[in-house]
Write a sequence for this structure.
């Protein structure tokens, strides 16, 4: 089991497929120095047989950063965990919550809510093999399971295998009848059950995930659980993280402006462009930074229309930033800045 210090999970950004790649994580780290960041889910076979540097490489500035693994074979997961540990990740997290067709066909993700003994075997095998913390991210149940039975059963069996941290998405997953997208919003949230798990298992670290959209909500949940994980809001409106360090980690550093964050991101963009990364691969993550600010639509439009072009460079971003300044100077009302505008 882990011999390295546990990362601080008081606030984290959820693993999100096609979103929380290395470029997004570097960008988010510029906004918050302390939030724990998670990779996209990476399957154990992909790590074992795939392009490891592409799948696992990250910038040292991203720490603290955790990798989320997908799989259900203890031997494969153990090998993948060892490899990931070698790349320097601060935590290994097992996905027991993703409801996509892909994970169902592979017998992992949310399907594992039905196999707590197998989850325990996977956790025990990985925990014995690595020196970093091994954690679980799960749902409160799947399909016709009673969450008040399914969740405690999973927790107790996996705790016996040595896991002390559970990140609970406070919704059931319906593997039959709902799409992965619908599974993120349709099943009702049951925050009370997650709060109750902390009271029932005070020796464990219980973190809550699902539907949290503000730091005010985060602070309300922190009165009941050890940590809060924010998902879509942290990606779609990343400036929601601007005060995370000051409000949740007692940092005394000043809150960065949106402009300061972009200025700090430009050298990273330039370096990656030299390595052959396309501009769009990085700028797609920053489109929501100015959401709610006059000129945000012009910012998004300019980047969206130009970042994919051959030879696009950081001037696309600086030109987009000038449109924010122009609109701010003109007193633009910003009434078009609805979510998704």
């Amino acid at each position: 089991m882990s011999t390295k210090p546990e990362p601080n999970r008081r606030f984290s950004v959820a693993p999100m497929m096609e979103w929380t790649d290395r470029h997004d994580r570097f960008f988010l780290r510029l906004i918050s120095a302390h939030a724990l960041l998670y990779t996209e889910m990476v399957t154990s076979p992909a790590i074992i047989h795939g392009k490891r540097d592409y799948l696992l490489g990250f910038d040292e500035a991203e720490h603290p950063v955790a990798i989320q693994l997908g799989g259900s074979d203890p031997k494969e997961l153990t090998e993948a965990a060892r490899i990931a540990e070698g790349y320097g990740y601060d935590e290994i997290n097992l996905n027991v919550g993703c409801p996509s067709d892909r994970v169902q066909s592979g017998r992992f993700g949310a399907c594992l809510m039905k196999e707590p003994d197998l989850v325990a075997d996977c956790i025990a095998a990985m925990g014995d093999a690595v020196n970093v913390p091994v954690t679980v991210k799960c749902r409160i149940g799947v399909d016709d399971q009673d969450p008040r039975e399914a969740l405690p059963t999973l927790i107790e069996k996996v705790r016996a295998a040595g896991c002390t941290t559970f990140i609970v998405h406070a919704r059931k997953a319906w593997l039959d009848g709902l799409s992965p997208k619908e599974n993120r919003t349709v099943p009702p949230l049951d925050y009370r059950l997650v709060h109750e798990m902390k009271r029932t298992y005070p020796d464990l670290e219980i973190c809550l995930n699902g539907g949290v959209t503000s730091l005010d909500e985060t602070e309300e949940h922190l009165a009941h659980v050890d940590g809060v994980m924010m998902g879509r809001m942290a990606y779609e409106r990343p400036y929601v993280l601007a005060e995370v360090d000051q409000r949740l980690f007692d940092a005394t550093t000043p809150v960065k402006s949106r402009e300061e964050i972009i200025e700090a991101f430009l050298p990273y963009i330039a370096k990656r462009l030299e390595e052959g990364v396309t501009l769009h691969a990085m700028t797609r993550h920053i489109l929501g930074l100015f959401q709610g600010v006059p000129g945000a639509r012009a910012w998004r439009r300019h980047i969206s229309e130009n970042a994919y072009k051959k030879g696009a460079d950081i001037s696309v971003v600086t030109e987009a930033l000038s449109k924010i300044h122009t609109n701010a100077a003109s007193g633009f009302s910003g009434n078009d800045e609805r979510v998704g505008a």
About this structure: The first strand starts at residue 11 and ends at 13. The beta strands are 11-13, 36-43, 65-70, 91-96, 134-142, 165-173, 205-209, 227-230.
